[in-house]
Design goal:
The complex is a heterodimer of chains A (261) and B (259).
Chain A: H1 10-14, H2 17-50, H3 72-77, H4 81-94, H5 98-112, E1 119-120, E2 124-125, H6 126-154, H7 157-165, H8 170-200, H9 212-223, H10 227-260
Antiparallel strand pairs in A: 1-2
Chain B: E1 7-18, E2 23-34, E3 38-42, H1 49-56, E4 64-69, E5 72-73, E6 78-80, E7 86-88, H2 91-96, E8 98-101, H3 113-125, H4 129-142, H5 158-170, E9 176-180, H6 188-203, E10 207-211, H7 215-220, E11 224-229, E12 232-237, H8 239-244, H9 249-258
Parallel strand pairs in B: 3-10, 3-11, 8-9, 9-10
Antiparallel strand pairs in B: 1-2, 1-4, 4-5, 6-7, 11-12
Helix pairs in contact in B: 3-4, 3-5, 5-6
The chains are: A mainly alpha (261), B alpha/beta (259).
């Protein structure tokens, strides 16, 4: 009986195992860097969205210096350009495909900025890898921003009131009271985003990043077999993502147990 | 027992309106708080008691009037300094001098009791960590919780949490303590231990403003009682005047329900 998989093809794929190992390394490295860049970006975006920067606030004050409610002056006084900017960024990045973003970053932005072309770890091409990291980081920054924002908002308002009533400034309240509690709440969601990034990073092979998918492509080009290398890639991605999500689930259970005590 | 010293907080025509004045949470309130005063604020729910108390350290933004604390109008964004120049009002500085105790304790759950207490003095006042810790342990032993210094808030009972919340506020050596229904979230058998701490504080001469449903406490410890309803102070007087000879029909009605 015919099958779309030929066992006899696997030994041929196996000869290219070095490519898959390199691809695995690139995928893991790319994902970790993406999470780091994405997290820093997301923190900045979330703080911008939650900021209280209102340059026109003076318009909403009456003669005695109190805020009036209602009317166009009150609406304009609440305008927060930082929040608008961050919200626009997040909504645009979340409403467009990753592949479009990756192409715009690689063929658009980095056609103007000339990156030095060198390889590191012996095989990773910097001028492909770096735009890939930037594009993925920008994308995950938008998603992580929403996670962090919801985490900050999930911290009970009484915590902030208690901190401020003790004389802590807004920044001190954020640093000592709100963020430590928010991060504990959102750690599982961040870890889940990490799994998503591992899978989505496969898109960067389209701009020549030598990840696992690019290894598949290379084997296909050399041997004209496609399905078997794809199955190898499937196995590798599964072995990366499944244990990661299981480990996350374990920690999630342990954390929620701590809350009930 | 009234020790009417200097005026510490002067509230003048304080207003808090919602929906362009359709809802008046605080409707033209004027109250003076003198040094050593223990003021009990009573009234039916929704009368604006908590809003009034929370306005005193601007957790609630008023929409009119003024609050003078240490001679500075803290409702203004800019205030004159010693030389008469207009400078930005430093609200954090004033809040340090007003301790606040909440109905739901609001201890920081990710920190030990000791850390809860030392955080603000160390970070805000720049107090030495060891000095702050020693002070915290002293205060804890005063409320009988010295052995819980390294516990987390979740391991404490409601009454214990509220006692910690009180001494946490005391760590900043406030000039006045604001209590927002401190016993309302407690099981009945734990109310006593918290009131005991508050009573002791009052006897030491601490200036206090307490929003409370504990009429016994208001009567016994307070030197002045404010009765609020519909965002107004309807009657003000000594505990005797309020509880023995109430004038306002709303107050009479209220007292007949709670006593």
């Amino acid at each position: 009986m015919d099958s779309f998989v030929k066992i006899s093809n696997f030994p041929m794929v196996f000869e290219y195992k070095q490519l898959f190992i390199q691809g695995l390394l690139v995928t893991v490295l790319l994902s970790i860097l993406t999470v780091v860049i994405g997290f820093v970006l997301a923190l900045i975006l979330a703080l911008m969205r939650l900021s209280n920067f209102r340059p026109f606030s003076f318009l909403g004050l009456n003669e005695e210096g109190f805020e009036v409610d209602g009317g166009w002056r009150s609406v304009v006084s609440r305008f927060n350009p930082l929040s608008l900017l961050a919200t626009a960024y997040v909504e645009i990045l979340r409403s467009t495909p990753v592949i479009v973003q990756v192409f715009i970053v690689y063929y658009g932005v980095f056609s103007l900025i000339h990156l030095p072309s060198f390889t590191f770890f012996g095989f990773i091409k910097f001028d492909r890898f770096f735009p890939g990291v930037v594009a993925m980081g920008m994308n995950s920054g938008a998603y992580l921003c929403e996670i962090i924002r919801s985490g900050i908002q999930s911290v009970d308002g009484g915590q902030t009131e208690a901190a401020r009533s003790l004389g802590l400034s807004q920044a001190q309240n954020l640093r000592f009271i709100v963020l430590p509690q928010a991060i504990k709440n959102i750690l599982p969601a961040i870890a889940n985003e990490f799994v998503v990034i591992i899978k989505e990073s496969s898109i960067t092979f389209t701009i020549g990043v030598q990840d696992i998918m690019s290894a598949v492509n290379a084997v296909k080009g050399a041997t004209f077999i496609l399905v078997e290398p794809l199955l190898v890639a499937t196995a590798i991605y599964f072995c990366l993502c499944f244990p990661t999500s299981k480990i996350i689930a374990y920690f999630e259970r342990r954390m929620s147990r701590g809350d009930k005590r | 027992m009234a020790t009417n010293g200097n005026t510490l907080i002067q509230v003048k025509h304080l207003k808090k309106y919602y929906n362009r004045g359709a809802i008046k949470a605080l409707d033209d309130i004027s109250v003076d708080v003198h040094q050593g005063d223990v003021i009990a604020v009573i009234g039916p729910s929704g009368s604006g008691k908590s809003t009034f108390l929370r306005s005193l350290n601007l957790l609630e933004q008023p929409t009119g009037g003024s609050i003078f604390f240490d001679g500075v109008d803290i409702t203004k964004k800019k205030v004159p300094d010693a030389s008469g120049r207009m400078v930005k009002m430093n609200l954090d500085l004033h809040r340090q001098k007003m301790g606040m105790v909440f109905q739901h304790f609001n201890l920081f759950p990710h920190m030990t009791i000791l850390h809860n207490m030392t955080l603000a003095p160390v970070q805000v006042k720049g107090m030495n960590e060891a000095v702050a810790e020693k002070k915290a342990r002293e205060l804890l032993s005063r409320v009988g919780l010295e052995d819980r210094a390294n516990a987390y808030p979740i391991q404490l009972s409601g009454g214990q949490k509220q006692r910690v919340a009180i001494v946490r506020a005391l760590m900043m050596e406030p000039e006045v303590m604001l209590f927002d229904e401190p016993t309302s979230a407690l099981d009945p058998e734990m109310v006593g231990e918290v009131l005991e701490v508050m009573k002791e504080l009052a006897h030491q001469g601490m200036t206090m403003v307490c929003v409370t449903h504990e009429m016994g406490f208001a009567r016994e410890v307070g030197n002045r009682v404010l009765f609020m309803a519909d965002g107004k102070v309807l009657e003000e007087g000594t505990p005797e005047e309020i509880f023995e000879r109430p004038q306002n029909p709303r107050l009479k009605d209220f007292l007949s329900q709670v006593l």
